[in-house]
Design goal:
Shape: globular
Largest sheet: none
Number of domains: 2
Helix content: 55-70%
Structural class: mainly alpha
Strand content: under 5%
Distance between the termini: 62 Å
CATH class of the largest domain: Mainly Alpha
Number of helices: 10
CATH topology of the largest domain: Tetracycline Repressor, domain 2
CATH superfamily of the largest domain: Tetracycline Repressor, domain 2
Length: 225
């Protein structure tokens, strides 16, 4: 669809002929995906969470009416942006969790991947707070489980492998470690002004040092003497 294509005024029923200009299912999916991807790209930049449909439509190169056609309201668009971001994070963390000779190496890659993803998607945690953590209902609960269930299982697998290999101690709670890693990774982005004030330079220049520090801190803490 182009920016000149106008959506029909009402939806088609089974007894109505297909109205001229209405996108076919495949075209509609591609078009709505483009809008979601554009909104996600806009939210990669440090900025307030709120976007206008006009801004998203302009960046996507489509008519604002088309955005309204694809998404019932702005909340629906944000939900799909959140789902897409959760799916991308899942892929990033799966890739970072591939078995290595040492469990500590996997831990390092996971920390680097998580800090990096959050730094490159500065609005992601705000989306989580708004659309998942502070939201109610089955959809928010499903997103919470999608975000954490498999993530924690992978985390626990790394801990168990490290313990089996004699790398990690047996006397700490993996759940506490999971929460601590998420918190330290998230704050580097949400607390970016603090980081830049303390260091006097861009957080982007500090990131690699921070990733290494968090890794050293954790592995020395859970590692066997």
């Amino acid at each position: 669809m182009t920016a000149q294509t106008k959506p029909p005024g009402r939806k088609r029923t089974d007894t109505q002929p297909r109205q001229k200009g209405r996108p076919k299912s495949t075209a509609a999916r591609i078009g709505s995906d483009k809008v979601v991807d554009t909104a996600r790209e806009l939210l990669r930049k440090p900025r307030p969470l709120q976007l206008s449909r006009t801004e998203v439509a302009k960046a996507a190169g489509v008519d604002e009416k088309l955005v309204r056609y694809y998404f019932e309201n702005y909340e629906d668009l944000l939900d799909q942006v959140t789902d897409g971001s959760i799916a991308e994070l899942e892929q990033v963390m799966v890739a970072a969790s591939k078995p290595q000779k040492k469990a500590s190496t996997v831990m390092r890659e996971r920390i680097r991947a998580l800090v990096g993803f959050l730094a490159e998607n500065p609005a992601f945690f705000k989306l989580l707070v708004d659309r998942v953590y502070s939201a109610e209902g089955s959809a928010a609960q499903a997103r919470l489980e999608a975000l954490n269930k498999r993530a924690y299982e992978r985390h626990l697998g790394v801990i168990q492998a490290g313990r089996a290999a004699g790398e990690f101690r047996d006397d700490f709670d993996p759940r506490l470690l999971y929460v601590a890693i998420v918190g330290m990774s998230e704050f580097f982005t949400t607390g970016r002004p603090v980081v830049e004030f303390i260091f006097g330079e861009s957080a982007d220049k500090v990131r690699a040092r921070y990733e290494k520090f968090v890794f050293d801190l954790i592995v020395r803490g859970i590692g066997k003497p």
